[in-house]
Write a structure and sequence with these properties.
The chain has about 325 residues and is α/β, with parallel strands linked by helices. It has helices at about 5-15, 20-35, 35-40, 45-65, 70-90, 90-105, 110-125, 140-145, 145-155, 170-180, 195, 200-205, 230-245, 280-285, 305-330; strands spanning about 130-135, 210-215, 255-260, 290, 295, 300-305. Helix 1 (about 5-15) packs antiparallel against helix 2.
Length: about 325
């Protein structure tokens, strides 16, 4: 099944009730695709899958339309349905449902109702659970400190080609947050830091329910030359997006999670950091934070184990889910 056929199928169901589409042995389908193409599609598993999906969602839209006369009530029900589908189904399913809504019910709403729907629809569709902030500066030292952790996770040593240039702890964090059911702004195999993708990282900062930052001592030193301190930039971008209302409602401090490469907060702060960094460091002590090193029996700091990290990240994941539900519930009930 190609994209052209997929689009035609969605448009057909958007414009007609399910009963009409299936009446007379699917005559509307035959007229839409043509007899030969219709027969060929009947033997295509991809078509059958999409057909079942589109039909199921259109039936639900018909039910919502019948049982919610007021447009705002209808929009409210549709947004909750979108939220449910995003949680339970694939991106393909979400795309099908979104297109059905836009090509059927959406056109009957007033402009202000469409704007109300669009804002909340975009948050449900586009936002991810967390934004991961980290740096590749001093990657070699970081990877050396956490080599035991890396080997316990992947049963192999860090690849020589990248162990001095790429922070290999951040992907581990994302891996376990993903396994807890959370979605970050990129798959961990392709994850990029602000060091690598520059200004475009700000867009991702503004589309996350929570901010998770891997904080090292090097984060509190100014980079050389024209290089920007992207950990500081990302923190400020997320903070400002919340303060200006771009991140929707929700308790400000519950949206920050700091993972400290050390066993206490003072350990990561130089004796004389740039003054603009001090509020950032102070904020870490006021919100949820955890330490990736421990000092057993007063000895030298040691990196935490894989299972200790999994426990710490599970705690973060539970807090992220809680704040996400709070944000969405408030957004979907303000009418």
């Amino acid at each position: 099944m190609n994209e052209y056929d997929r689009n035609r199928l969605i448009q057909l169901f958007a414009q007609h009730p399910v009963d009409h589409v299936e009446a007379n042995d699917g005559q509307l389908l035959k007229d839409t695709f043509g007899p030969a193409r219709y027969d060929a599609l009947q033997a295509d598993p991809a078509y059958q899958h999409t057909y079942t999906l589109v039909k199921e969602y259109k039936k639900e839209l018909e039910h919502i339309a019948r049982t919610t006369a007021a447009p705002r009530k209808q929009i409210h029900a549709l947004l909750y349905y979108l939220k449910q589908i995003k949680h339970d189904q694939s991106k393909e399913s979400l795309d099908v449902l979104s297109r059905l809504i836009r090509q059927s019910l959406y056109g009957a709403w007033a402009a202000d109702e469409q704007a109300y729907y669009d804002q909340r629809h975009n948050i449900i569709i586009e936002w991810v659970d967390f934004f991961i902030s980290y740096t590749n500066r001093d990657a070699g030292s970081t990877n050396h400190d956490f080599q035991d952790l890396y080997e316990s996770v992947y049963f192999a040593s860090p690849p020589p080609a990248v162990r001095n240039t790429t922070n290999l702890v951040a992907p581990i964090i994302v891996k376990y947050l993903n396994e807890d059911g959370l979605e970050g702004f990129a798959d961990w195999n392709d994850i990029k830091s602000g060091d690598e993708i520059g200004e475009s990282v700000r867009t991702y900062c503004r589309k996350a329910y929570a901010f998770v930052q891997l904080v090292e001592r090097v984060c509190f030193t100014k980079p050389n030359g024209s290089i920007r301190n992207w950990c500081f930039e990302e923190y400020n971008t997320f903070k400002q997006a919340h303060l200006t209302g771009d991140l929707g409602p929700g308790n400000y401090n519950t949206r920050f999670h700091f993972l400290i490469v050390g066993d206490n907060l003072n350990q990561i702060l130089p004796a004389q950091p740039p003054p603009s960094y001090n509020p950032w460091h102070q904020h870490m002590g006021q919100v949820h934070h955890g330490f990736l090193k421990q000092r057993p029996h007063g000895g030298a700091p040691m990196s935490i184990s894989k299972y200790e990290l999994i426990d710490a990240l599970h705690e973060i994941a539970c807090k992220v889910v809680e704040v996400k539900e709070q944000v969405l519930d408030e957004l979907l009930s303000d009418y």
